[in-house]
Amino acid sequence: MLNSNVKVDKKDAKLAMAHFYVAFIALFLGGTAGLLQTLVRSGKFTLPAGIGYYQLLTVHGVLLALVLTTFFAIGFLFASLSKTAGTLSPKVRLTAWIGFWVMTIGTASTATTILLGEASVLYTFYAPLQAHPVFYIGLALVVVGSWISGFAMFAHFGKWKKANPGKVTPLLSYMSVMTMILWLVATLGVAATVLIQFIPWSFGWVDTIDVLISRTLFWYFGHPLVYFWLLPAYMAWYVVIPKVIGGKIFSDALARLSFILFLLFSIPVGFHHQLTEPGIDPNWKYLQVVLTFMVVIPSLMTAFSMFASFEMYGRSKGATGLFGWFRKLPWGDARFFAPFMGMLIFIPAGAGGIINASHQLNQVIHNTIWVTGHFHLTVATTVLLTFFGIAYWLIPHLTGRVMTKAMNKLAIIQTIVWTIGMAFMSTSMHFAGLLGAPRRSAFSTYGGSAQAAEWIPYQIAQAIGGSILFIGIILVLVIFVNLAFFAPKGETEFPVGEVAEEAEKTPMILENWKLWVGVLAVLILIAYTIPFVDMIQNAPPGAKSFKHLL
Ligand code: HAS
Questions:
Q1: Which of 172, 471, 494, 503 is deepest in the core (most CB within 10 A)?
Q2: 299 lines ligand 1 (CB under 6 A)
Q3: Domains in the chain: ranges and CATH
């Protein structure tokens, strides 16, 4: 049984905080670029020094979607492992620091090329858009750094298992390792395309690039990437939120099973980002669409589990009727309120994902700003509000401080501001998308078209939403700086929930890592081998990047 009073060791706290500093700096810079790109996109503003829409959009996407998320997730995973599987050994901690610095150097290199205007290729860096080689080298360093951190986590977890043979592993540690395995397997795709295709091509060592293969390898990585963002949030939902509200985890086994299902089904589904692309046989697209619907199941299980935890708690406090528990929840506690709003928004956001994945409906929304609306609800609201909710207790826990009532109130206001800003921005993006408004396009490129007049009101709503969100960023940064440096000294709890007494015992098969990674490998091979060989064999003349390997 985990001692809930155990604090994260001071040296481990420093490691986790280093990750959070980078994450919140990325939030500030990426958020500023986000506001500016909304304004430039509207066609009403021009920036000095020739700073353009694509440059700003690249800063925004790379810093927020890749840097903020990855650094926050890794910092949180290290803190969770240290709390639940024991203090990191000096060797593991040193490895983790090496991982951190490799990632940070990579981030700085990539960011510099973007800020110099040498890499306006957006966060998806689709070929044939080409960036400075340092952009790709920086990305490769971020990936390699994260692998080093991942191996440090596996070593730490392995040590716990060895010291506790036959025991069920601590749930937060289990989830951390599962999240990191997902990341490692997923990043093989992006590492392959960056190292084998983009770096040689950007240096001019080869003069062509196979676009379809680069996109396929990117999306092999790109979809599990979104679950790498989501799973740390789910860790907080499953394990932290029950404790914050004063309740219990509904089922340990169900939580572990849902993480296994994410591992199995989040990777062999990348084609659902490529449904409109020629060069992939429709039968393989169909298979991956079916697998995409499978990856919806663990989210439905999560929804069920959260409702169960809320209801069990409410009833234990005397709530009656179908929704009586709702009033018993601690609405004034930002540690609960921010993630809860994330959950609420995940209902329409997830429904949007199901629409995207439905092959015929995808034809309507693909490459429209609807997709941008979808991922602002998922990653920029569900995930981010949960990350903010985690920061409200984790940062003071790590820095030996406490969140004051005033800061808690500000965090509640921040959540409301964020939700309102996103409601404006994302709703208008969804509607404009249905009217055909393109994504990834500056207004100047289509502003004169007859259709564009229909999109203008939505574009104004987006700019209003973007401005409100920027206020939300300032507020959360104020709270972060306060919790890190100025809040009163004191003890803050790292909330780790206990499993309900009535829950079934956790079956040991859920701990059989070889089995699950083996099933994952088989699923990936089934979903990708034949279409990938097809792509190489039918590559256009001159597309050298992979053909020479066959
Ligand atoms: Fe997605 C495109 C399909 C989830 C992020 N997605 C994107 C892109 C991003 C992204 C960034 O199939 C754009 C990439 C680009 O730049 O081109 N997505 C899905 C599906 C899901 C999904 C099926 N996406 C996410 C998540 C993301 C994310 C999560 C980030 C974190 N997505 C797609 C597809 C595309 C796509 C296509 C390509 C579109 C195109 O054509 O380009 C599913 O995982 C969603 C399942 C979710 C649910 C919701 C469960 C609800 C829960 C909350 C419970 C609430 C409670 C509180 C308990 C079924 C768990 C309630 C309390 C009360 C009192 C009511």
A1: 172
A2: yes
A3: 10-547 (1.20.210.10)
